[in-house]
Design goal:
There is one protein chain. The chain is of the alpha+beta class. The protein folds into 3 domains: about 5-65, Orthogonal Bundle (Arc Repressor Mutant, subunit A); about 75-140, Winged helix-like DNA-binding domain superfamily/Winged helix DNA-binding domain (Arc Repressor Mutant, subunit A), CATH 1.10.10; about 145-220, SH3 type barrels (Roll), CATH 2.30.30. It contains 8 helices and 8 strands; from the N terminus they run αααββαααββαβββαβ. It has helices at about 5-20, 25-35, 35-50, 65-85, 95-105, 110-120, 165-175, 210; strands at about 55, 60-65, 145, 155-160, 180-190, 195-200, 200-205, 215-220. The strands form 2 sheets. The protein has a 6-stranded antiparallel sheet with strand order 3-8-4-5-6-7. Strand 6 and strand 7 (about 200-205) form a beta hairpin. Helix 2 crosses helix 3 (about 35-50) and helix 4 crosses helix 5. The termini are far apart.
Amino acid sequence: MSTISTENYLKKIFNHNKAFGEKINAVKLAQELSVSNAAISDMAKKLSKHGLISYEKYKGIELTDKGEQMALNVIRRHRLWELFLIKVLDIPWSEVHEQAEVLEHHTSDKLIDRIDEFLGFPDFDPHGHPIPRKNGSLPDAQNYVTLAEAAEGSSYELMQVDDHEKKLISYLTKVGFVLNTRFVVIDKLDFDKSYTIKFNDTVLSVSQKISESLYLQEIIEAGEKND
């Protein structure tokens, strides 16, 4: 059982469980996919029948091993396509997510393996998300924090951005704040939870909403590791 609808359901369930460490409930899944609760109930029954999810009413939905493998395969295709579109076709990183959403459903395993090889078997997509390997494993988990959790006066590197937020990525591109940019948190304004950061010669004010969508890795200077 592999259709566009099935793949989207499984991918959404996987991403939610990975992000929040908990089962997603039917109501939340319906909201995420912009469908009715009845549609979710019907699809859940079909996915459960085919051994792709474990579902009990009011107890949430989780993937079986078979369902997780299928979800990881879709995510692998999506993220490799994103990287290919940027590196080969020079499409802006703010636009590749939408294109990959289409291509992920119409790509054979043979083709995606060739793309993976062509790109040098990359570990991360253009937005900093891990690319599942052919065997379903993921690169080692990274201990990122959001800008909303960052400490004033500390230095960080931008490592990951939510690829669903096209307008946010376009804005970050416009101001020159892209992946792997190193910066310092200058100030945090308690009034509205906004941040002031400095990178290169640019000082930028970042709202609370944006700060929650930027994932960072703290830069530890030599000599600080043994403190």
